[in-house]
Amino acid sequence: MQKKRVVDIVEELIVPFTEDKNLDLVDIEFVKEGQHRYLRVYLDKEGGLSLDDCQEASEYLSKKLDELDPIKESYFLEVSSPGIDRPLKRDKDFEKYKGELVEVRLYHPMDGQKIFEGKLLGLENNKIIIDIEKKGSISIPRDKVSLVKLLINFD
Predict the structure, then answer these.
(1) Residue 85: inside a domain, yes or no?
(2) For residue 1, is it within any domain?
(3) CA-CA distance, 136 to 131, in Å (whole number)?
(4) What is residue 66's DSSP assignment?
(5) How far apart are CA 111 and CA 124, in angstroms?
(6) Are residues 34 and 69 in the same domain?
(7) Where does the pLDDT of residue 2 fall: very low under 50, low under 70, confident under 90, or very high at 90 and above?
(8) What is the CATH number of the domain that holds 73?
(9) What is the band of 152 on the pLDDT scale with cuts at 50, 70, 90?
(10) Number of structural domains, the chain?
(11) Tell me: the pLDDT tens digits for 5-47?
(12) Are 100 and 131 in contact (CB under 8 A)?
């Protein structure tokens, strides 16, 4: 049997909490930076995430991780908001942020470009559809995309 990835285990642990507290699980990262490992959990909610929300989620998750002990090496746990330029990862994100300005980054160039900006039209058949000003709409296969994030419009 293949070992479960840390992010999958953490997701299983945190989802009951997020559902109970009406929080959105945005992303989970387990990364090594320098000599240290970081377990980062990004949450959001309608009206914005408070410091108390982050603290409560951190305490809950820390207790669950201590009980299960799925991570053998030492790490730092961080629970926070994804910020205003949040990444869009889950199918529901593409529905929720339809009409918003996004940046789409690709692993490899498409039509000579690796970065596209436009209005998010949605997700259809596992393709991200955006409307690029003066060019029209384009469809980008999701498996070619390294990152989709909201753009901040200061106008």
Answers:
(1) no
(2) no
(3) 5
(4) H
(5) 21
(6) yes
(7) very low
(8) 3.30.300.70
(9) confident
(10) 2
(11) 899 999 999 999 999 999 999 999 999 999 999 999 999 998 8
(12) no
> Which ranges of the chain would DSSP assign to H, the alpha helix?
6-20, 51-68, 91-96
* Residues whose CB falls within 8 Å of the CB of residue 63, separated by 6 or more in sequence, listed in order: none
Contact (CB, 8 A) for 24 and 44: yes
Distance CA 4, CA 88 (A): 24
Alpha helix (H) ranges present in 88-144?
91-96
Q: For residue 71, count other CB atoms closer than 10 A to its CB.
A: 15
Is 87:147 a contact under the CB 8 Å cutoff? yes
The string of pLDDT tens digits covering residues 113-128 is 999 999 999 999 999 9
Pair of tokens at residue 138: 């384009």
- The three-class DSSP label of residue 32 is strand
Residue 104 lies in domain: 91-150
Residues 34 and 63 in one domain: yes
CB of 76 within 8 A of CB of 92? no
> Within 10 A of 108 (CB to CB), how many other CB atoms are there?
7
Distance between alpha carbon 135 and the CA centroid of its chain, in Å?
28
